[in-house]
TrEMBL record:
Organism: Ruegeria faecimaris
GO BP, sorted A to Z: DNA-templated transcription
Annotated CDD domains: PBP2_LTTR_substrate
Lineage, top ranks: Bacteria, Pseudomonadati, Pseudomonadota, Alphaproteobacteria, Rhodobacterales
Family as reported in the entry's similarity comment: Belongs to the LysR transcriptional regulatory family.
Chain ranges of the HTH lysR-type domain: 3-60
Keywords assigned: DNA-binding, Transcription, Transcription regulation
Name of the protein: Transcriptional regulator, LysR family
Amino acid sequence: MTPNWDDMRVFLAVAREESLSAAGRLLRIDPATVGRRVARLEASLDAPLFTKSQQGYVLTSAGERLMDHGLKAEEAMRAAAGAMAEPSERLSGQIRIGAPDGCANYLLPQVCGKICDANPNLDIQILALPRVINLSRREADMAVTVSAPTAGKLLVQKITDYKLHLVATQEYLADHPAVHSIRTLGGHRMIGYIPDMIFDRELDYLVDLGVDRVALASNSVSVQLRQVSQGSGICIAHDFTLPFHPKLKKILVDQVSLTRSFHLVRHQGDQRNERLNRFAQALSQGIRDEVERLEAEASP
């Protein structure tokens, strides 16, 4: 028996959320109904699609095979919906963006707010995760990344460069030995990412400075900046975050100045979706403008 699209939608939701209740919330149907639909699909295919574990619902080998076909079917349905949609000057519906913590906290709120102001019927969801967003499983419609992915059928475009510098509070600097050079950082408490949770080599800033110990660590940029703002140590900060933390002062600017880039990553199958193309254009321009504005405010 050929699976119908409604059952396939339920299957994909459970595969992504790994939970009947989470899939039910996503689809806005009762979890018991989700379970019955999955059972019906398994019966029609005469194959178990999930195993229940402590982590939730995990795909079996048969489920993994069906997932590949389900994603292709979903892509085709999305393309059809985009092709049939009536042209409109305004965007509508729901779009989910994945982004690293710094971008999600300090850039996307302003950028997405302006896009929503111009498109009142558009719902934007920001998925801030300390890891790479899995676009192949449709965790998001598009993602902002620091490194440009090289594998998978993806559309990748560079959005903009951004700057980073060492920062600390004036109070911390007054109460601790002077920071004259990179070599003197060893005598200070360094704040940064949890070393074994750095998901992108471009985020491993401190190792390039010869820092071998991170005394205060978090996988969240926001937590790191809160810690340094309280006078707890020194960290590397995005320049675009500094207007939100006026107590922070750049240090060793002539010796440490890092440049990284944001990229917008999308499903290759969405390249003919005019609605997502327009949103991607607005998002990219908004991020460029916001980085430029905030970095200008953060200049000495």
